[in-house]
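Readers outside the structure-tokenisation community will struggle with the description of the input data as it stands. What matters is that the chain and its backbone geometry are given together, residue for residue. For illustration, here is how one protein appears when written out as sequence plus structure tokens:

…
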Amino acid sequence: MIGYRRRPSAGFVLLVVVHLLLVVFFAWALGTPPLEAVWRLELELGLGERGALDEDEEALLRRALVRHPALGEALIEDKHAAIISANDGGWVTLDYAYVVRPSPDDRRLRISYAGTRPKGAVAVTLHAGGAAERAVVRRGQPFAW
């Protein structure tokens, strides 16, 4: 029976640490980059192939628009605002939509209800910076923000 054990050498410890870092790097590299996730969200929303965004996805979209201003400019394309939702000529065809507009824009965003039900209403939530506003839009009562 051997009465003692040798400690691992510095070279062995370094080898193990390098392999662990390599595994962590590949795990990180296999994840979806944030801009690709935003592009996929925008595409799926525009085609109407997914439901409304959850809080994490909304936060991802907001962070990407703040971090990459060119992304917002590409979505807006020299217009007042861009609608990220399945729409037909600006008329939203689903129960939800995301509107992107430039932050220094001094024009107010106007949301109107144009549904077919005479007593219909749409609940809206607007986010800008750290502020959030909730409102209900009814026929003949547009909401301006």
